[in-house]
Amino acid sequence: MPFPSPPRSPSGPRRRTLLASAAGAALLVGCTATSDDPGGATSRSPSPEERARARAARDSADLVERYDAVLAAHPALAELLGPLRSQTARHAEAFGEGAPAPSAGSPTASAAPHAGKASPSASPSATPPVPADERDALAELAAAERSLADRRAKALLDLPGEPARLLASVAAAGAVHAYLLTEGAK
Question: Against a cut of 0.70, is the pTM above it?
Fold first, then answer.
């Protein structure tokens, strides 16, 4: 007499939890916001490393704006997107951007301290419109995460030591975000 197979529980939540934990661990290990130039900016042109950090910070801030747009259009996705958006904001901080500015639709946007100054994260970006369907919105956000993770993986080859490790860590976290968003769209 064969044994009956045990009831199968869905593997999705355990896998997502594991991947989210791995992404969080990668952030704790790889995202250090240290500066090699404690004296501040000088009159010299930025090094390739500084340009890469600035670009990575802008890219993360732009991605936070995409998350904000999707959350504004689809508030029901807050449970899925909230932690991913939070990690993406921490990526911008790790690259030296500081906390990304609140989105135009958030209640604190009018109280932002950037009254007369323009900063890279406060400049208006061309965030594409959010699809009306939640699945399509998640799929587009996953594609943006995947594309950025791929660009970062290529860019880290030109960076030395610590900046390369930081970029690799954030690229890996972005790939996990893309996976979780793809699974969330199913």
Answer: no
